[in-house]
Amino acid sequence: MSTTAVANTAKNGVAVMDFNLPEGYGGLELQSKDVVLPHIQLLQKGVEWEELNDIAWKPGDFYNSATCEVIKGSFEALVVDMKVTTKMMGPKDADGRRETLKFSSDGLHWDDGTAITQADRKSDDPEDFLNGAAVDSYHYIIIVKGSDFPIILTFKGASYRNAKTMNFALNRMQPTWKCWTKFSSEEGVSGANKFKKLVGKVQPKALLTDPDLATLALETWKAAKTRRVVSEDMTADTPTY
User: Fold this and answer.
1) Cβ partners under 8 Å of residue 115, min gap 6
2) What's the domain count of the chain?
3) Cα dihedral 46/50/53/56 (nearest 10)
4) pTM above 0.70, yes or no
5) What pLDDT sits at residue 1?
6) Residue 241 has pLDDT above 60, yes or no
7) Residue in 198, 193, 204, 194 with CA at minimum distance from that of residue 171
């Protein structure tokens, strides 16, 4: 059944569209098994992105790839779901980046099919626990306050330990989007290098009261369970600090 767009004139003189959608219309049907979401990136010292050329920012701010805007300092969001990836990384180079030696798309098996073991997760470097160890990254599907679409925020590298504290609090929430979570950053130090680490604090008293957002969160959660959700941060070649 085809749809017909009909223009109606509202009382204020502005034309509105009545698309006469058929019963059962489901919108855009994605053919890919993957749903690629935009992401929010914690900005670090030395970042050189063309997108930031005309925007004032400082380390600890956040870049929203969906809106191409910088979020200053902190923001609140609903946590809808979480995905896990794992990397085994080498030592830092001169710029503080690491080469990925092995990568897992699910946090359980390396992409060559072998299982991730407890031995894989231990580093032999007492000065650098990330060198040679398998470390998880936590990718949260969130809805930022003031927006109405899902986006991904990743706790990786030295930030992943902060995610474990947040996860403990989120596990007590049914559902996890029952209340708002505040995201910010804190100072991290590794040798002579200073960097920013992500922090997430669940706010049990800041309850969600918007029924439309609650519905959006539930539908996003359902979609995340039936499709593989990915972002630029969920790849083997993403820099890890």
Assistant:
1) 108, 109
2) 1
3) -60
4) yes
5) 43
6) no
7) 204
